[in-house]
Amino acid sequence: MRYIISFLLTSAAALPALAEVPAVVADTPPVHSLAAAVMGDLGTPVLLLDRGASPHGFQLRPSQMESVVGADLVLWVGPQLSPWLKKALAARPEGAEALALLEAPGTYRQDFAAQDEHGHDHAEGEAHEHGDHDHEAEHDHDHDDAEGHDHVHTGLDPHAWLDPENGKLWTQVIAAELSRLDPENAAAYAANAAAAVAATEAADAEAAALLAPVKDRPFIAFHDAYGYFTAHYGLTVAGTVSAGDAAAPGARHLAELQEKAGAAACLFPEAQHDPALVTRLAEATGAKVGGALDPEGTTFEPGPALYPEMIVTLARTIAACNP
User: Fold this and answer.
1) Which of 184, 206, 228 is at the close of a domain?
2) pLDDT in tens, 153-210
3) 3-state SS, residue 35
4) Global pTM?
5) Domain coverage including residue 124
6) End-to-end alpha-carbon separation of the chain, Å?
7) Sheet holding 73-76, edge to edge
8) Parallel, antiparallel, or unpaired: how do β-strands 219-221 and 97-100 relate?
């Protein structure tokens, strides 16, 4: 499916430039990393998702709620990933900035693999070149219906940061918004963003080199979070132990996975989730268990280096299980 993406920013005239560096809050480690890279020495964004925590079912502490309400700029993936942030955003002053990066123009978006056999559509059915996404993706239906859900796993897949092309785009989007809010430091934001994009490009190239030898070796992941990563690098996921929200799988699904696991080279557990199911599947099928994957970056040291490190580490972990 092609996506029509709306992304409305308050006009520059509606919100005056700030006298100080904007106070920035980010929902997840990858978004926080991009913001930290753009801000550089000018300031440090606040990260809401605690280190080692899972975004599934996360709840804000009162102090975090205050940070969101008082921030000059809130950066989040969107309600599909972080519905727990919506209440705090609703309490912010009228006109306060909150950017849902998943809606940024040019963002490559796709459905969960379980929802859409192909994961995404291409113009006139053409093959997709993962190094050159169709970032003008259009959508003919609304996915922003996550109200009341805990990280839904049908429809739009929110794990879009796992495509480095989106990471580079979001870096520029963040820089543009910070420059609008703080024009005195626009040159610094632009320079920092350029350096961050270069770091992402280097990480992307390293990841591609690591994964090139294992493209034809399907694997089973813990939950349906890797569609963007596997599409970008041409990998094949034979199945997932859990759904997009990391919920416990049913007996029928586990039985189906046992059949698929026989053809998979590796089974990967995931950070912050019990590896017992993966271990059981491996014992039943003889498949090799790889290292734990961390698609949300919650086990990394927060900061500018987290995003490129996360991309390379995912690639290295997948490749290491397929020598």
Assistant:
1) 206
2) 568 999 999 999 999 999 999 999 999 999 999 999 999 999 999 999 999 999 999 9
3) helix
4) 0.81
5) 24-206
6) 35
7) 46-47, 24-26, 73-76, 97-100
8) unpaired
